[in-house]
Amino acid sequence: MRAPLNIKVFLLAATLSAVFGSAAQSGAGASQEPTLRLLSAEVAEGKKLLEEGDAEGALKILRKAAESDKYDDAAWHYFGIALARAGQSGEALKALEHALELRSRVFGFEFNIQRTAGGESSAAESAARRTRFAAKTGALAESVEAYLTLGPEDAGLWQEWLATLRLYAEAAADPKFEARPFRLADFATRAAILRKPEPMYTERARRGQISGLVRLRALLGADGKVKGVIVLKG
After folding, report:
1. 3-class secondary structure for 99-159?
2. CA angle 103, 44, 108 (to 5 degrees)
3. What digits encode the pLDDT tens for the residues 119-160?
4. Fewer Cβ within 10 Å of end Cβ, the chain: N or C?
5. What average pLDDT score do residues 101-113 get?
6. Are 59 and 162 in contact (CB under 8 A)?
7. C-beta separation of 102 from 24 below 8 A
């Protein structure tokens, strides 16, 4: 069901900030702004072969392109798709997970900057901000879609994120921003905690004298329900 663009996209901004923000600060090159790669000649050729149905031919080219540059998000994205079409689902999952890591880092950096941006901006600056955000959101959504076709274990969480990314992309494409500033803060509503019950200590844990810290990752939906809970640690 399509959400009206005049309704704010509800998202747990703190969750996205923590998940994508940590990605933006981790790994090599974290001190520099992460960017999407333009299609190299090799990746463009591999993509063309995929479109023509030649998965094996595309796989040879894209494997070389991806393995020669571990930061080329486009190469890893299309390499993953080529592996999937060649029936190598295990390798395809790993390649697409790498593409997701790279593109999440790019999106996270942009998300955090735009979410906290303030002050006045010119029409040209607003248009550039809008275009940049739409491109980075679209690239991440593209990789999430490809990843979901392989049936990952945490598919529910990725489906929630994909739905959110699509809403952001739809909002960024709204023609009304041709006449008014584009600000991400207008679409992200910080969640308000209404009730915070303490976690239950099970009888089994009590008998075994088990205690410790458990870290979870979750998404709060527009209906207020917690979805896609995954144990990260503990």
Report:
1. HHHHHHHHHHHHHHHHHCCCCCCCHHHHHHHHHHHHHHHHHHHHHHHHHHCCCCCCHHHHH
2. 10
3. 666 778 878 888 888 899 999 999 999 999 999 988 887 888
4. N
5. 86
6. no
7. no
